[in-house]
Write a structure and sequence with these properties.
This protein is of the alpha/beta class and about 750 residues long. The protein contains 25 helices and 23 strands. The strands form 5 sheets. Strands 10-14-15-13-12-11 form a 6-stranded mixed β-sheet. The protein has a 5-stranded mixed β-sheet with strand order 2-4-5-7-6. The longest helix has about 50 residues.
Length: about 750
Amino acid sequence: MTPDQMRDASLLDLFRLEAEAQKQVLDTGLLILERDPTNASQLEACMRAAHSLKGAARIVGLDHGVQIAHAMEDLLVAAQEGLLRLLPDHIDALLQGSDLLLRIGQAQQDAELEARVETITTRLQVLLGNAVPALRVQPGESTAFATETAAPSKPEPLPTTAPQAAEPVADERISRVLRVSAERFDHLIDLSGKSLVEFQRTKPLNDSLHRLKRQQESARRTLESLREHLLGTELDASAQALFAESRNLLIECQQQLQAHQELFDDFVWYGGQRTQQLYDLALASRMRPFADVLTGQTRMLRDLGRSLGKQVRLEIEGENTQVDRDVLERLEAPLTHLLRNAVDHGIEPPALRARKGKPEEGVVQLRARHHAGMLVLEVSDDGAGIDLERVAQAVVKRRFATAEQVEQMTEEELLAFLFLPGFSMSQQVTEVSGRGVGLDVVQHEIRRMRGNVRLLQNPDQGCLFHLELPLTLSVVRALVVTIGGEAYAFPLAQIERMLRLPRSAIVQLEGRQHFWLEDEHVGLISAAQLLQCNEKQGDDDSIPIVLIRDREQYHGLAVEAFLGEFTLVLMPLDGRLGKVRDVAAGALLHDGTPVLILDVDDLLNSVSKLLGTGHLERVDHASHARQTVSKRVLVVDDSLTVRELERKLLLSRGYQVSVAVDGMDGWNALRAETFDLLITDIDMPRMDGIELVTLVRQDPRLRSLPVMVVSYKDREEDRRRGLEAGADYYLAKASFHDEALLDAVQTLIGEARE
């Protein structure tokens, strides 16, 4: 509620706000007191909350609220003074009173509500009187008198609680909170994400400036070579003047370009940092602790366990794990389903647990953590686990499979039936469960959030539900591929794996193409056919495959190329388009290329329809001859590991690669063959990289050859030494990674085939 709304709010509205806040204090404190009845800090907090609600209800004129809050306060004061020990029955009555106080502020006063208030108040007074006979109230006598007269004989509460209560108030005075509408904040995140993507488009411009600088340097060297060649010839004065003017103009252009490039480099660096910080801060402001979704879950499990005659404790790990607000809101329903199922189906009654040698109190654990850019949730219990025999009988009874087929199924395949709509093993429908919609709802909602859920179990040791979800729904980590010459993205959380399949490994079976994957046949489908676009014929000896999973069945989607993994800012499609088949949203790559993010669940439906028609197109497995000759790269390095790594990386991009073990070997190869690029180390036997680069620049045939130095020496003076010798690019091995090398090669000589 904003300050303006606070000013305009009625006293009843303010009471509702206070009731909601104090109810959270009461619920949290009472659940702790149920396990630790003598916890002084929680007794004090609960008593103060009840006292505050009593005063607020009196100001508003809610007599029923005053009545029940006063009865709760009496009981808590007696517990504080050691006159009674809080038992589960006391906690039940106090929790019911807390619920009723919230209802009093939100509902109209009627006979039903009055009767409920009278019932709870009487129960609280009876519990107090049974535990403290001296405080037993007579008809028409208020418990306030007994409490207030007994209070002076008791010592005053320790003053240490006062500073603890004052600290939050001080924090509230210091901290500043700005309320912003969710729509405006979402718009801010959208704009910051787009600015980050748009700014990344400066990278190609920066690369072109570097390329222009290298071309100017090559032109200058060519002009100097021409000047040396013409020294022995007679040139007239006008020709000499033109030659000198051209040389001076070229040098001047180089100097101006160098100055502009340094300024642009600084702009790219600082601008990139600022846009990234802006987006990170906006996204972080959207994050909330995982504990926000747990409000009421502990209370729910406690009440559910008591209604079923079970003792249940909820243990939570990772309450401070940061999660996107939208993810938290959509997580509440699936988590509630899983927690209720754990209590109803998992945890056994105390007597049965005692016979099994287990503690009478069952434990449900909820753990949250970050892993590999994903939110990982685990809901586990120490209950009975799942009776696979009953699952098998239910599968046969519902005619999902025959008894012979069920006998051949693995445990994982049987457990997958629990996620089917309408599948339930409960013999009767109850208020808790038994309709067969719980796990189906869980899986559906998790998949809508681009996540997945797995079920693991051990007989008599309990079940574990493993959920993986994105940390935020505004960005997605995706695998970008090429299909039909266009870029598409698969959310990483929704694919099983990626692989390159040799064309010779494709087999024809029952009119479909398959391949073997870990002793299992996997169907091969053309992604271009699914998306109804023209398939580009490849010329490699292998096919990029994206593996997706439909329950227990895998499908291999043949794509044209892997472009890499990217973090993409989601851009929702225009609502006027409606639901676009197989597409979830759009995004932009770092270079501004538009990309469609695929809806994997929709793709699986399309696969099922395509398989039903039987009109599958074959994935081409005939290797095509290369239309153009690949560019050649010479790698010179005395380290076998580095040499082979660079060779494999370049080969994967289609370049032809030759290797040399030292500078002398590389120099002989350069004189004997023609190459488009030289990649060399510095420290090598017989001839080091500096000597090799110097010889290359002195040779008329090789002086225009692009040269890249890849070295462990990352000091600025080492870099300057390599560039002054004539290298076009200097890459430190300490910061070396696959994309850095390949991007540098592409910048120097372009694609492998043009």
